[in-house]
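Reopening this one. Same input as before:
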Amino acid sequence: MTDDALLTEILKRSRVVAVVGASLNPVRPSHYVARFLVQQGYRVIPVNPGHAGMMLFGEEVRARLADVDAPVDMVDIFRRSDAVPEIVEDALEHLPHLRTIWMQLGVVHDGAAALARARGVDVVMNRCPKIEFPRLLGDAGL
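Same output, byte for byte:
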């Protein structure tokens, strides 16, 4: 269980978020959550091999985390739980500034979470920043 104080700290300190599984389809949760994050002032870097090279919210979609050349604070995962270990391993290997792994609603992987925590990275599972942001930070936001 992640407490509200940690969630608030993560939302305030994070500035660059890589969204793994970002979709160009506006009705997909990964699309509207990413859009919400952009509206709150975050830089969102979409990661999805099926859309690599296309543009989303002013950013080129990357095929994988290894292709991200920005200092990412948080990885937000919109993939099935069984895909999480590989994503977390890639994030830990390729994103030296990483401080948070965030798994979306319905996404939980205790083994990957333990690996990230062992490397000093905070982990949030089964939560959505689009829900937590207004709940914890209100309309004022960042």
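So the earlier flakiness isn't reproducible anymore. For the record, The beta strands are 16-20, 43-47, 55-56, 59-60, 74-77, 100-103, 122-124.
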